[in-house]
Predict the 3D structure of the following.
Amino acid sequence: MTQRIFHAFGTKAPKAALSAILAVALCLAGREARAQDSITSELRRILEPDSTGRTGILFGRLDSLHATPRIWTEGAIDQANDLRLGCPTSKPALALITLREKLDLNATIDRWFPEEQGYTHAHKITLQNLLLNSSGIRDFVPLIPIHPDSAVTPANSIDRAYCHQTLLFPPGTRFDYSNTNFSIVGRILELQTKKSISELFREYFGPVAPTIRLDDGKGDYPKGYVNPWPYHWSSPGFGGSFIGSAADALRLFTYINSQTEFFVMTHWYKPDGSYSSGRGDHLLGLGVFGASNFAGQGLASVYEGDMGPCQMILAHVKGSTFCIYSSHNLGRSELRKVFERLVTMSLQSSKE
């Protein structure tokens, strides 16, 4: 590019070209500074009413796997913290591993969860039903102890919500969000591959997002997190117990969105597994969700998460991945509004 500028400016090329390059660099730097300021101002505005010192918001953007993540933080959260990443990170990752391991999505789960052992209608529930949350299996979250010392393993959660329990509806007839589905998916992956979920995450995602791992209660958490945490760190199970940095959460979601399997994940489905119209604010994918016009920016893969004491959202829109994490209970609807404003601000700054 420099050589082309030299030719354009003729004999005074070096001086003129350097001036032009400097002008462009200053323009870009000014635009970036304005974007940084507007996003920082918005984050500060959100936290203004706080007097506890425990509230915090992190917003991030990543334009490609080869780019450097841009992270903004305000309040009691830091970009180096181990965030509780929740469902938006773990469930798309489990879906990708399922497809990468070439498991038959139409296979029924009685192979791993026999009906004679109490697993209701396992011969009618497919892997696809689990990934679409259309299995009819109850969510274990309301059924487990909410206490910081009450550990709950994925096997415990499956037994509580599924074994010897009736289904909420016939498989494939409705959608009902159930974390139990992904405890079962994780367990099937372990049985099928003879590897633990931790090993599978390191194998598939370690090179991309090395900080992401199952929570062990010893992370460098945001200072805004309530302490003690109201439930045991293991309780969310395979579907939500991962921690790691915001930068790595951005990298992992960007990586998943770039894989060929993601096309299958985002055909956008009906609960019975047939394809939907692909229009609306609540598109259903395999381990992921979408919106056909997210924040007025067009089609996006979007996953909102709520762990009770904190919330989070990941979205891939217009080729970039965005995230937001709270260190306090901001509320899902409020976080969504904030996130949509910040994504719009960030994208508009790129156009200027």
About this structure: Residues 13-47 form the longest helix (35 residues).
